[in-house]
Write a structure and sequence with these properties.
By secondary structure, the protein is of the alpha/beta class. It contains 10 helices and 11 strands.
Length: 297
């Protein structure tokens, strides 16, 4: 059996969206090669109920950060099996941590590099979607807050980037990787670009907007820019503190993901070529319509 474990990796913390993307990839491999697969949310488990009980034993997790695509992940898994002197995943339990891209998305890339521009997770089968959803069923009392939101709403998700949002929460190595992949000249320019796009979205959408972001400063500035519309109930801003899910943002991540999964549409604004793995969960797994805008810069 293969188990993808959401373990904390302090050197290169993995976002929740990236982890779920890796789970999609693992499930695709399990269907292809006919072995069992599950994923363990670890500390996140207190927010979700699953159809089945995950394995209880805690053993070493093999991190596979270089398995950027499904082909490389399969190659790495086979190497691990040979190292453990096992023939296949029906004969042993293998615990890993991976965010590899699903089939049809990044197979041509042998490593993470500036030209990685995949925005979508490719075509995902209903079987894989249903499996992921069966492991992400919110515990009722944890999602009571959703009742205080409009019954129908759209979401604007602003991914400001780790260099702005989590500069004091994650280490320099991780920040350096992200800094190579962005083109935003200044925070003020990011805000200006975001406000311009949101103003256009407001003219077209028929739903009130909920603004989510990985940056508290971005949300504060949005609150100032749209104070009048917030008073009128046309714009809402996520009130939880922005925290990196791969570090300590448990309740905050669950809160915003629940909002995304129940939205009527998502408008994704990002400083990264690939958009945001976080709001991609709602689109690729829960089929929430999404519009991806040109890279913020």
């Amino acid at each position: 059996m293969l188990v993808n474990v959401y373990a904390i990796n302090k050197e290169l913390p993995m976002g929740f969206g990236d982890f779920i993307r890796g789970c999609v990839t693992c499930h695709q491999l399990s269907l292809k090669n006919k072995f069992d697969f599950d994923f363990d949310l670890k500390k996140f488990s207190k927010f979700y109920k699953s159809e089945e009980v995950l394995l209880k034993k805690s053993i070493y997790t093999e991190a596979l950060p270089k398995a950027i695509n499904i082909n490389l992940l399969e190659k790495n898994l086979n190497s691990l099996l040979r190292f453990k002197r096992q023939s296949n995943l029906n004969d042993t339990d293998l615990f890993v941590l991976t965010n590899a891209w699903p089939k049809g998305t990044a197979e041509k890339h042998e490593k993470i590099e500036d030209r990685l521009k995949q925005k979508t997770w490719g075509k995902i089968s209903k079987e894989t979607k249903d499996f992921i959803k069966s492991r992400l069923i919110p515990i009722d009392f944890q999602s009571e807050f959703i009742k205080n939101l409009p019954k129908k709403y759209a979401v604007v998700h602003i991914r400001a980037g780790d260099h702005i949002s989590f500069i004091n929460a994650i280490n320099k190595k991780s920040l350096d990787i992200h800094n190579k992949l962005i083109e935003v000249n200044s925070f003020d320019e990011l805000i200006k670009a975001a406000v311009s796009r949101i103003s256009k979205i407001l003219k077209k959408t028929k739903h009130p907007l909920i603004i989510l972001s990985d940056s508290d400063k971005v949300k504060d500035d949005m609150g100032i820019a749209y104070a009048e519309l917030i008073t009128k109930g046309k714009i809402f801003i996520s009130e939880v503190n922005a925290k990196h899910s791969g570090v300590d943002g448990l309740q905050e991540t669950f809160h915003d993901l629940t909002i995304l999964n129940n939205a009527k549409e998502i408008h994704q604004l990002s400083v990264y070529n690939w958009g945001s793995g976080f709001s991609n969960i709602a689109h690729h797994i829960y089929d929430v319509p999404i519009k991806r805008y040109p890279k913020l810069k």
